[in-house]
């Protein structure tokens, strides 16, 4: 390789593969060891060189290349994988006494005079998976499933940055471990979902499972999953588990760094206590500790039951669950109009806080679980979310328990509730202009942290503002005065001034936060950011007719028909337009600095690329954008050209024809980029 020109492409295949391996090695040092040995710009240069080489020699691209972590095409279903060595479960204990009994069983199993040592690992609360490497290349990744039959989720697992795609040695090896999601990521994704009016996931484990089952790996790549490996399957060149873990680490597998080697059962217990205390500091959930016999010879001696190995056991931490009684039912209307049940509880201690309310999620769940007033229930706290009712202790039900009936009318405005087909929630048919409850929620949401960040403007104050007729929508917040506020209950001049100042400051909120704060269906922070970047101002959006706005929204990254329509419909409503107008008049009109206008022969033209081309799609996109053109994923009326490669789908061509969009071939595009062809020329126009 030519070291003097970092952008020079490798001249042969072997050099290309060496470059790919070098980048994977840097990825491992960065993601697994947290100890990179190159600077970011150096790394970026290597990456660029690889991408260029791959664009020039598409036939060289290896499936384990670092560019191949995100596969391009969604699957239609997961293939079943039948494994020879089933993935077993673990026996559980919840007490020190039980753990000592297990140790005694191990001692008896090994016979007199043999003393086991143990390896103590965290029991990560994620999804069990198995990874198969052939000649050092990652070829198959499957979920545990029922232990024997799992699902092939190779494409999705490849998106996990710490998963080695290529090992430093050309060996055949199968390893097992746990895919999980960090709590912070879980909380962020749930916030996003809730903001978009979607149902939140129960815990990081469910979200991990749901993510692995996504058929589109591009969606998986947007939800950063993590991985720890803890077992090697089959033949290992090690005598002990401890050695095997070291060997796995050397191969670049992510292995938990603080695994403990314990010489006695007392050492095991000491490690468990230490972990129990540190549990909350970990960025991910562990539901216990796994204790494993270290020696493989001793493991073979002990063997398995039908369900789990006799040489390992899980010590489970007491869950953050408690039992209490349901005292009543509260019915709330949210800002989207969804009417949800909340159980009022006899206050109970749960993971350090007193809990008096718990979510029942939806009315179907109330019916399935058959929760009644007077029932004893088990409540649980998951992550940062409010506690939930997990189960009902039916055997303790008092004879006078009262069933919880779903309400027929909105608790706030009294309108008769409706049910949307295919949804479990009950909805108030009005919106914030007809239902005070929804209005209060909408304003509270607007002011919340992460949205407009108006400190001090919480639900109680909002309720008063609405009740006094001071605020009828969020734009009214911006004409409130200190005098308005001091007339309210328990509002001193000082706090009134603070709140008015906080409202003043929120005028500076960036456009994406303002858009997110409006609470448009399906638009959370990520989507709002994309919209803000695309349009740059409210003015730009209000200036487009509804259909034009919808079309433009379809070009926003991550926007399919549903999202585009949700935003377009919001902006089409006269009431919203009028309110946004008042917001702007009152100085809430943030702008995004637009990127410099593109230049080049393709400026003002947009392209949809379809079929097989001589270079990968991302490269095609790069070329089009470098020439000032716009790269689109779907053909619309606004598309200037469809660039058709080999074996192009009939549907796309049909659509182009219907919309009157000219179809050109790759050579035609090349000519336009080089400025050799004018408008409408190129290869073979029209359908075809
Ligand atoms: S060993 C035959 N080690 O817990 C050995 N499992 O409840 C079984 N798990 O199916 C696996 N952390 O998905 C092992 N350090 C760890 C683990 C672990 C989490 C999961 C695994 C297993 C489940 C059993």
- Specify the number of helices: 24
**Would you tell me the overall average pLDDT?**
88
The separation of the N and C termini measures: 45 Å
Q: What small molecules does the structure contain?
A: 2-(butylsulfanyl)adenosine
Tell me the helix content: 25-40%
What class would the helix/strand composition place it in?
A: alpha+beta
Rg, nearest Å: 30 Å
Largest sheet: 7 strands, antiparallel
Provide the β-strand percentage band.
15-25%
Low confidence ranges = 678-688
Tally of extended strands? 24
Which geometry do the CA atoms define? Answer: flat
Feature tags:
five-stranded mixed beta sheet; alpha+beta; disordered C terminus; 24 helices; 688 residues; seven-stranded antiparallel beta sheet; 24 strands; binds 2-(butylsulfanyl)adenosine
């Amino acid at each position: 390789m030519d070291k003097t020109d970092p952008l020079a492409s490798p001249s042969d295949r072997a050099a290309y593969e060496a470059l790919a391996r070098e980048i994977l090695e840097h990825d491992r040092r960065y993601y697994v060891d947290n100890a990179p040995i190159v600077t970011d710009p150096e790394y970026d240069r290597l990456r660029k060189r690889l991408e260029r080489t791959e664009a020039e020699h598409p036939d060289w691209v290896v499936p384990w290349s670092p560019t191949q972590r995100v596969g391009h095409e969604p699957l239609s279903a997961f293939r079943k994988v039948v494994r020879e060595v089933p993935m077993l479960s673990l026996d559980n204990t919840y007490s020190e006494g039980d753990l000592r009994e297990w140790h005694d069983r191990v001692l008896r199993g090994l016979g007199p005079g043999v003393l086991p040592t143990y390896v103590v690992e965290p029991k990560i609360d994620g999804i069990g998976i198995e990874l198969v490497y052939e000649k050092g290349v990652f070829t198959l990744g499957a979920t545990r499933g029922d232990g024997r039959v799992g699902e092939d989720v190779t494409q999705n697992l490849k998106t996990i940055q710490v998963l080695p795609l290529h090992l430093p040695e050309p060996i055949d090896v199968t390893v097992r471990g746990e895919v999980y999601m960090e709590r912070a990521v879980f909380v962020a994704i749930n916030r996003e979902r809730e903001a978009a009016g979607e149902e939140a996931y129960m815990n990081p484990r469910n979200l991990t499972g749901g993510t692995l089952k996504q058929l589109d790996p591009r969606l998986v790549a947007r939800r950063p999953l993590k991985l720890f490996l803890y077992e090697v399957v089959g033949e290992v060149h090690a005598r002990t588990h401890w050695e095997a873990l070291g060997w796995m680490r050397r191969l670049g597998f992510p292995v938990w760094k603080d695994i403990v080697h314990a010489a006695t059962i007392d050492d095991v217990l000491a490690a468990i206590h230490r972990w129990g205390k540190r549990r909350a500091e970990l960025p991910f959930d562990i539901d216990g500790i796994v204790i494993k016999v270290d020696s493989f010879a001793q493991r073979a001696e002990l063997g398995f039951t039908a369900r789990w190995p006799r040489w390992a056991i899980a010590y489970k931490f007491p869950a953050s669950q408690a039992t209490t009684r349901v005292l009543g039912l509260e019915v709330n209307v949210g800002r989207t109009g969804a009417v949800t049940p909340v159980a009022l509880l006899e206050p109970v201690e749960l993971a350090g806080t007193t809990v008096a309310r718990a979510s029942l999620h939806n009315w179907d769940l109330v019916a399935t679980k058959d929760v009644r007033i007077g029932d004893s229930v088990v409540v649980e706290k998951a992550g940062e979310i409010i506690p939930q009712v997990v189960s009902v202790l039916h055997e303790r039900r008092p004879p006078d328990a009262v069933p919880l009936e779903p309400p027929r009318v909105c608790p706030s405005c009294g309108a008769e509730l409706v049910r949307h087909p295919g949804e479990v929630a009950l909805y108030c048919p009005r919106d914030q202009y007809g239902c005070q409850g929804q209005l209060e929620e909408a304003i509270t949401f607007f002011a919340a942290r992460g949205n407009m960040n108006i400190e001090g403007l919480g639900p109680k104050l909002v309720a008063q503002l609405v009740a006094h007729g001071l605020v009828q929508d969020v734009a009214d917040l911006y004409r409130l005065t200190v005098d308005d506020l001091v007339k309210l209950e328990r509002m001193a001049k000082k706090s009134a001034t603070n709140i008015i100042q906080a409202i003043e400051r929120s005028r500076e909120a960036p456009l994406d936060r303002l858009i997110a704060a409006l609470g448009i269906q399906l638009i959370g922070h990520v989507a709002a950011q994309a919209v803000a970047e695309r349009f740059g101002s409210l003015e730009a959006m209000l200036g487009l007719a509804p259909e034009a706005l919808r079309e433009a929204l379809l070009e926003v990254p991550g926007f399919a028909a549903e999202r585009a329509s949700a935003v377009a419909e919001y902006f089409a409503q006269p009431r919203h337009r009028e309110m946004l107008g008042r917001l702007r008049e009152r100085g809430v009109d943030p702008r995004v600095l637009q990127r410099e206008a593109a230049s080049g022969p393709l400026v003002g033209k947009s392209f949809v690329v379809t079929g097989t081309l001589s270079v990968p799609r991302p490269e095609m996109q790069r070329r089009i954008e470098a020439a000032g053109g716009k790269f689109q994923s779907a053909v619309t009326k606004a598309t200037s050209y469809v660039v058709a490669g080999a074996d192009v789908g009939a549907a796309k061509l049909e659509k182009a024809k219907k919309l009157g969009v000219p179809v050109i071939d790759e050579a035609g595009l090349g000519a336009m980029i080089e400025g050799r062809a004018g408008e409408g020329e190129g290869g073979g126009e029209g359908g075809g």
